[in-house]
UniProtKB/TrEMBL annotation:
The chain crosses the membrane at residues 383-401. Keywords: Membrane, Transmembrane, Transmembrane helix. It comes from Flexivirga alba. Gene3D superfamilies: RNA polymerase ii, chain L (2.20.28.30). The keyword Membrane applies. Residues 1-28 have a biased composition (Pro residues). Residues 1-35 are annotated as: Disordered. It comes from the Bacteria. This is TFIIB-type zinc ribbon-containing protein.
Amino acid sequence: MTDEQLPPPLPQPVNLPQPPPLPQPARLPDPGALQDPAQFQVSEETRTYPCPQCGANLFYDPGHNQLLCRACGHGEPLTAPHGAVGKRDLQQAMHQLAQRIAANEHGGLKSLSREVVCQNCGGTTSFEGTLTATKCPYCATPIQRNDLQQAPERLPIDGVLPFQLDQDAAHAKIVEWINSRWFAPREFKTYREFGSFTSIYLSYFTYDAQTVTDYAGQRGEHYTVVVGDGDNRHTETRTRWWPTSGRVNNTFHDVIEPANTGLDHKKVVELEPWPIQAAQPYSPQYVAGHLSRTYDEDAQQRFERGARGQMDEQIRTTIRRDIGGDEQQIHQVRTSFNALTFAQLLLPVWLMTVTFEGRPFQVFINGVTGEVQGRRPWSKVKIAAAVIAAIIIVAIVLLVVRLTR
């Protein structure tokens, strides 16, 4: 191709180096949906969602099953597939993943982090870590990264639970939650001035399993005896123990585990329960205009570090029920996991992050149910004032009591 045939360089944001000339974007078939309105950038391995009416950006409109242009109000119906989200055998999937990683050791994905050139304004956009959908910092164009989603060294996303809570509803939830924090500093309550509030899909793994557990333990039965003489005569409850063993079966469905790091894990867990049954097969259309991350810890890691513990707790409850009696002791447990399957899901969260006195505080909103969980700082001034007020009230009460005697 001669220089005359190349397209002119894209306009550059201030203080950014000139990117090399790019070929014109091409439309490619999307395996995840029919007639996807996305525009694909082959050179950058990214996709955007331009409005067909005005050229602005389309966003997934929570709760309305459409892509919406906030500039002209045009709505584009979703063409994403519907149906149940399939699950895969965990052991087989992890074995295949290890084989693909070995095969692509010298030619595969070099790094999770990557910079791409925005096809709208030419500015450089950074994808850090497992971030797969972001917005151009110069023109706010939503950009989705295809290479990480489809990399053979990564487990694919199986399903997505779409946002149902829009920005106005989420904002109202945040305001209500913050205003109910009586001892939060006044500055924290004005978070709009220095906080970030965004919608993001976080990565989760959900597991199904059938287990068979052999156990050995003891069954305790209470009985009473009368001991002592005279004034010391009394009844004591004692326990008679019997050795026992047996086998129990458990069935688990949708045991869910967060798969992203860098977040307040305890508060993320407290966003549960999630209506997993409403999840749909993954389509990037649901992510349009929202941030998104894939997993930081893979399906095997999250099973061993989280989901297995949840299952083990339920198994021990089943064992105690099987042992019966008044008390139970469990000495040995051997569990076989049969039909252990999983799926990677994207679940919707509204996230507020506020840095107060040099410390970050995160507040999360379940993007379907509206459940709010988070942490906030404590106002030393308000706490001191409350303590002083309490002391004054106690002193007044004591004075009144003394004067009325």
